[in-house]
């Protein structure tokens, strides 16, 4: 099996989308992204549906290995595919800036709860 020497570049637009659309809007857009990639018969994103539809999201340059790696990274239940929840979680996990912001907001909320009980 030949290995590809090219590397994939991923530009993280999720934080920009979150700021512009708000929480509900961002979730709606993630659902739209899921619907673009989903295998309509199976209701999940499979390797074949990801490969077939990835160009719609600008991912046409990803290798088969990259696509398989994405599926493995997000596949929490081990079925070899991504359901809608797994896809959304994966998109958040692939966005370091959004994860940092989410962690900050979580920490702030937790701190407020502790102050409430003290």
UniProtKB/TrEMBL annotation:
<feature type="domain" description="EF-hand">
    <location>
        <begin position="62"/>
        <end position="97"/>
    </location>
</feature>
<protein>
    <recommendedName>
        <fullName>EF-hand domain-containing protein</fullName>
    </recommendedName>
</protein>
<dbReference type="Pfam" id="PF13833">
    <property type="entry name" value="EF-hand_8"/>
</dbReference>
<dbReference type="InterPro" id="IPR018247">
    <property type="entry name" value="EF_Hand_1_Ca_BS"/>
</dbReference>
<dbReference type="InterPro" id="IPR011992">
    <property type="entry name" value="EF-hand-dom_pair"/>
</dbReference>
<dbReference type="GO" id="GO:0005509">
    <property type="term" value="F:calcium ion binding"/>
</dbReference>
<dbReference type="InterPro" id="IPR044205">
    <property type="entry name" value="KIC/PBP1/KRP1"/>
</dbReference>
<keyword id="KW-0106">Calcium</keyword>
<dbReference type="InterPro" id="IPR002048">
    <property type="entry name" value="EF_hand_dom"/>
</dbReference>
């Amino acid at each position: 099996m030949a290995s590809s020497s090219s590397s994939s570049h991923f530009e993280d637009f999720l934080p920009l989308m979150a700021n512009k659309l708000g929480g509900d809007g961002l979730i709606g857009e993630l659902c739209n992204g899921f619907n673009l990639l989903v295998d309509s018969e199976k209701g999940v994103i499979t390797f074949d549906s990801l490969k077939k539809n990835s160009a719609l999201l600008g991912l046409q340059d990803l290798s088969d290995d990259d696509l398989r790696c994405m599926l493995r990274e997000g596949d929490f239940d081990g079925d070899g595919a991504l359901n809608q929840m797994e896809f959304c979680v994966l998109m958040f996990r692939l966005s370091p800036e959004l994860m940092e912001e989410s962690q900050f907001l979580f920490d702030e909320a937790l701190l407020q709860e502790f102050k409430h009980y003290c």
